[in-house]
Design a protein that fits this description.
The protein is mostly helical. The two termini are 14 Å apart. It contains four helices and two strands. The longest helix has 14 residues, at 95-108.
C-alpha cells in the first residue's frame, strides 16, 4: 500500500520536529545505514516510495519524506510510546534497526526492492 505518508499534519515534513528531534537526525541515521550498503539501495528506495506523502512534489520540501504524523506512528509502533519507554521517551531510530528493516523488505518483496 502506498501513500501512507499523507496523514495530515500541521507541520511541514521537512521542518517539523518529533519530540524536539528534527527530520535531519533520522535522515542522517538512514543515510549512514544505507549508503555503505549498496545491496540495500533498491530496498531503501522502495521503502521510501511506499512511505512518501502523496503529492510530495507539490509542497516544500520537495523530497519524498513520510508525513510527520505517519512517521511518528511508525516510530511508536517500532519502539513503543512514551509510557513504555519508547520513542516518545528517548528511544530513537538506529542504523542497525534501519538495516534490519531493509533486509526484511528485501526478503518479503523479492525482486521488487
Amino acid at each position: 500500500m502506498s501513500g501512507h505518508g499523507d496523514v495530515p499534519s500541521g507541520d511541514s515534513a521537512g521542518t517539523a520536529s518529533r519530540g524536539g528531534v528534527r527530520w535531519g537526525r533520522d535522515a542522517g541515521v538512514v543515510a549512514r545505514a544505507v549508503l555503505p550498503r549498496p545491496w540495500l539501495w533498491w530496498a531503501a528506495l522502495g521503502a521510501l516510495r511506499r512511505m512518501a506523502r502523496r503529492g510530495w512534489w507539490r509542497r516544500a520540501p520537495f523530497v519524498p519524506l513520510p508525513g510527520e504524523a505517519y512517521w511518528r506512528f511508525r516510530l511508536e509502533t517500532a519502539y513503543g510510546g512514551a509510557e513504555e519507554g519508547g520513542a516518545g521517551a528517548g528511544g530513537t531510530l538506529t542504523a542497525p534497526d534501519v538495516v534490519a528493516f531493509l533486509r526484511w523488505c528485501r526478503r518479503s518483496r523479492p525482486g521488487r526492492g
